[in-house]
Amino acid sequence: MDDLVIRNARVVDGTGAPPYPADVAVTAGRITAVGRGAGAARRTVDADGALLTPGFVDIHTHYDGQATWDPILAPSSWHGVTTAVMGNCGVGFAPARPDRHAWLIGLMEGVEDIPGSALAEGITWEWESFPQFLDALDRTPRTMDLGTQVPHGAVRAYVMGERGARNEPATAGDIAAMKAIVKEGVAAGALGFSTSRTLAHRAIDGEPVPGTFAAEEELFGIGEALRELGTGVYEIAPAGAAGEDVNAPPDEVRWMRRLSEAIGRPVSFALLQVDAAPDLWRELMELSAGTDAQLHPQVAGRPFGMLIGLETLHAFGDHPTYVAELALLPLPERVARMRDPDVRARILAERPPEEDLLAATVRGCLDRLFPLDDDRPDYEPAPDDSVAARAAATGRDPLELLYDLLLEDDGRNLLLLPLLNYSERNLDPVREMLTHPRAVLGLGDGGAHCGFICDASLPTTMLSHWARDRRRGETLPLEHVVRLMTRDTARLYGLGDRGVIAPGMKADLNLIDFERVANRRPEVLYDLPAGGRRLVQRADGYLATFVSGTQVFANGEHTGELPGRLVRGARA
C-alpha cells in the first residue's frame, strides 16, 4: 500500500512531453508509479483532471536572512516553489566574523533592499564558517527544500577585511585563502559560488559589492575549488547587466566562456534586455552558444521594474509639502490629507528643490508607467495603457492623473514601471529568450527588493500568461513552460532527484487548476522582524503542493507541515 495516490491527474511531467492522464503513487517521499489504475493507498486525492506538475525549482532567491527565522519562505512557497536556491549575486551571511555582522547586513540591505532592521533583529548568528551556516540552516524545518551558494562578498571580507570590502586587489595569498573557504563550503554542501560585477549592486554606504572589480586571477583561482571538487555552479551578476555599460557584456561573456572551460563547471549569468542596447541580449545569447563551455544565461519571464505606490516609492516623494507634512503619517491619514483639495493643489504645483533619483525616474517614465488596477495584474501592458497615454486621451496632466491613481483603493493601489526587458513595449524578445536552448529561468529574487519589487510570483506568470492568457503575441506550450521551471533548473544545479514526475524521483508536486491559476495584485505587509516592510503577492489556482509527499499547502493555505530540508550538494 502506497502512502499517497493522486488519481485522475493531467500530468505535465517536466520532461517537455505533452500532458497525459495518469495516476501518481508516492511512498516514503518518493514517486513509486506513474500510470493508470494505481492501487490502494493510505491517502487518495482525486485530481479530477487538474494539472499535476513537479514542484518548481527556483534557482535565484535571496532568502539568506529570512531562512534563518521564517519556515514558510513566502511569497515563493505560495507559487508552487518546492526547492529554492539562495546565496546569489555574491551576497550572503557566511562566512562571518563576529565584528562583520553589521557590515554584512548593510551589504545585503544595499544590494537587495531587505530592511537592515529586520535582518539585525531576525538573524541569530549561530555561525562563523560556511559549514556552520549550513548546519544552522539544517536545524530549521520549512515548507520547502533550500540550497545555497558561497557568496564572494562575504568571503572576500572574511579573508581581506577592509581591503576586501574596499575592492582592493587580492594577493596570491588572499586568493588561496578564498579558494580554501569556497572549497570547504562546497564540500560541506553548498551548491556553488556566486559573485557580482555590476555597478548597480552597492552596499548601503554606496560602495560596490566586494569582488566587483576582481581580477581574472582571483575569479579563476576561486573557480579552481569547483574544478577540484567536480561539482557546483558559478553564478555571476555580470558587468553591464543592468545597462550601466553596454560595452561590457560581450567581454564578460567571453571571459565567462574561458572560465567555464577552465574549471569544467556550469557558469550562469543574469541576462536582461536594456533600453540603451535593445538587441544586445541576442549577441550575448549567441556568444553563450556554440562552445564547449557550459554557459547558461539566466533570464526572466516578464519585465524587471518597480512597483509604484504610496507604500513603496512614487513621483511625489521629494515634493516639499509631501516631505514636510505627509511622508511620516500612517497611510490612512496620509491618504486623507492628500485628498484635501488644497494639499493636492500645493503638491502638484511644486517642483522639488533637490530631486530624489527614484522619484525623478518615475516622473520621467510616465509613458511606461502602467496601473495594476485589477486583481489579475497584466505584465505585458500595451502602450495605450500607460499613465501618459491615458492622460493624453482624456486631456489631463499626466502627473495629476498619477496623483489620483495613487489614492485609489485607499492608497494601496500599485503601478508597474518596467525598466528592463520591455524596450519594445511587448514581451516578444522575452519569449525568444525563453526558447533559447542555453537559457534557464531565474531572476525572481524571492526574499529581496522588499520595498519596490515582487517577482517571486514569476512561476504563476509563466503558467497564466505564457501558457494560457497572452494576447499580444504567441504563447508557449504548457509542457515547455513547466520544463523551464522544473527539470531545467534542477539539472543546472545538479539536483537530479527532482524536477520530473517519474518513479524514483522526489515527490515534490503541484496540483493546479489551470483555468484559474493567476497572480493576485501585489500588496505591502509589515510582517518582517522589527515591523519591516515587504511586498508580497498571492496566487489563485494552486490546489495542493507536496514536498517529499507531504502536503504543505491546500488552496493556498499552509497546512502546518514542514518537511523541507537543506539540500546539501548535487545528487544523481
From TrEMBL:
GO molecular function, one term: hydrolase activity, acting on carbon-nitrogen (but not peptide) bonds, in cyclic amides
Tagged with keyword Hydrolase: yes
SUPFAM superfamilies with a match to the protein in the record: Composite domain of metallo-dependent hydrolases (SSF51338), Metallo-dependent hydrolases (SSF51556)
Enzyme Commission number, as recorded: 3.5.1.-
Gene Ontology cellular component list: cytosol
Coiled coil location: none
InterPro entries assigned to the protein according to its UniProt record, in alphabetical order: Amidohydro_3, Metal-dep_hydrolase_composite, Metal_Hydrolase, Metallo-dep_Hydrolases_sf
Keyword set, alphabetical order: Hydrolase
Pfam families to which the protein is assigned, alphabetical: Amidohydro_3
Domain of life the protein comes from: Bacteria
Keyword Hydrolase: yes
Class of this enzyme: hydrolase
Gene3D superfamilies: Metal-dependent hydrolases, Urease, subunit C, domain 1
Record domain Amidohydrolase: where: 43-553
UniProt protein name: D-amino acid aminohydrolase
Organism: Actinomadura verrucosospora
